[in-house]
Design a protein that fits this description.
- Helix content is 52%, strand content 18%.
- The protein has helices spanning 12-24, 63-74, 101-134, 143-174; strands at 2-4, 27-33, 37-42, 49-53, 77-81, 89-93.
- The strands form two sheets. Strands 1-3-2 form a three-stranded antiparallel beta sheet. The chain has a three-stranded antiparallel beta sheet with strand order 4-6-5.
- The longest helix has 34 residues, at 101-134.
């Protein structure tokens, strides 16, 4: 059975809870395609936890990955999907009472760094367009100008999206 579940990258806990609830109802996650399309198969109802592993940027200290490896050895858990293109990396932790706080804290730090990097990249794409517009170079509507305007628009949307995500992650830490 296929289900569509939309969530923002900083709302991973909602998606993980949804998957745990589905498992409790007797539907085990089989794979995730393009982050939002989830395939379930009928299974024995079981209390489990799910964990989304993100790897947008190279994590220099790899702490996020190492904590996950420790947890996998401590609790029985397995990779559900994530080795193919356009699949989210999702782990099923069979111990419903496993303490994942350290892992989630490391993931939040990782996501903050990744979001900051994406904000920087969006700003770098936006800056030349803003400079050209400021100097009046984008007044003609030729192909190059239209292309730069499209790039600027997409960059602005990406910048706003990840700023909202970064603020949501920072707000979550304060709660």
């Amino acid at each position: 059975m296929w289900k569509f579940k939309f969530y923002h990258q900083w709302q991973y806990e909602k998606a993980e809870q949804y998957l745990s609830d589905m498992e409790t109802q007797g539907y085990r996650l089989e794979k995730v395609v393009c982050s939002f399309f989830m395939k379930f198969k009928k299974a024995q109802p079981k209390a489990t936890q799910y964990y989304f592993f993100y790897s947008f940027i190279k994590d220099l200290d790899q702490k996020h990955f190492h904590i996950l490896q420790e947890l996998k050895s401590k609790f029985s858990g397995n990779l559900v999907c994530g080795k193919r293109l356009f699949e989210s990396t999702v782990y099923r932790i069979c111990d419903a009472d496993a303490d994942l706080r350290e892992l989630r804290t490391a993931r939040d730090r990782y996501l903050k760094r990744a979001f900051c990097l994406k904000i920087l990249i969006a700003t770098l794409f936006l800056l030349p367009c803003a400079l050209l517009w400021g100097f009046g170079q984008l007044t003609q509507m030729d192909f190059g100008s239209m292309l730069l305007i499209c790039i600027a628009g997409i960059s602005a949307l990406v910048l706003i999206y990840y700023l909202v995500g970064l603020l949501a992650l920072k707000r979550k830490k304060k709660l």
